[in-house]
Amino acid sequence: MWFGWIVASNPLAGWWGKNKRNVIIAGVALVAIWWLVAANGRPKVERVTIPDGYPSADRELLVQAPSKPNDPLPLVIILHDDNTDASSLEHDSDASSLANRRDFALAFPEAVAGTWRLDDPNGADQQYLRDVVRYMDEERTDIDLNRIYVWGIGEGARLALLAACSPGPPVYAAVGVVGQFEAEPGPTCDNVTQHGRVAETDWDKKVSSTLWDFSRDLRRKV
Fold first, then answer.
1. Where are the bilayer-spanning segments (predicted)?
2. 8 within domain boundaries
């Protein structure tokens, strides 16, 4: 009785009862439109080539970064294991979605013939990583050079640690190591660069989130 009186005396309640379905449909449509507009404004993953003028000219990598960020962005470099590739790791790690949500630039370097060269700390792959940092900062976006992070899995983890311990720029603020090793995959250089480890055999979005939580507020020590 009281409920019927309230509905009868409240025209809004009666209107809602007649139009609830249409309002819900309109609300869902507005949310979908907002999501599409927001997604269109986010940078997408691209395959690019290091241009002429760099020692590593013509080497490829995947990148994702806004061209004109409001503030300099952290850069995360992610290194795949041997006998795999950048595209597979980009897909499995879901790091590109995380980068869009957390506002950092992203690069997935590509090994030559699927194999990183670790025999020379000043060799071609070390130079390639230096060129990736320079390319991202000079050609693609505005990088915060105090917040460059390098993450890797398997042999990519070994290359990441080797890069962190190599003399000269860039100085990495953090190294993320993914994988299960009987022994540490190389030196750690904790006096220069902090490192974290995730003992997983596969790299998924949870691993990416864990590494970002570890790295995001760290800055280079020297």
1. 20-37
2. yes
How high is the mean pLDDT in each 10-residue block of the chain (222 residues)? Answer: 49 62 61 42 88 97 94 97 95 96 97 92 91 96 96 94 88 91 68 88 94 94 75
Is the domain of 158 the same as that of 194?
yes
Whether residue 49 contacts residue 78, with contact meaning beta carbons closer than 8 Å, is answered with no
Residues 35 and 122 grouped into a single domain: no
> What is the torsional sign of CA 215, 217, 221, 222?
positive
Number of domains, the chain: 2
Provide the residue range defining the domain that includes 12. 2-40
So what's the pLDDT on residue 41?
Answer: 55
Q: Report CA-CA distances (Å) from 167 to 8, 11, 138, 206.
A: 80, 75, 22, 32
Q: Domain check: are 122 and 32 in the same one?
A: no
Q: Is residue 154 part of a domain?
A: yes
Indicate whether 6 and 111 sit together in one domain: no
Burial label for 36, CB within 10 Å (0-12, 13-18, 19+), is: exposed
Q: How many other CB atoms are there within 10 angstroms of residue 176's CB atom?
A: 27
Token pair, residue 52, equals 């002429």
Cβ(221)–Cβ(189) under 8 Å? no
Whether 92 and 202 have beta carbons less than 8 Å apart is answered as yes
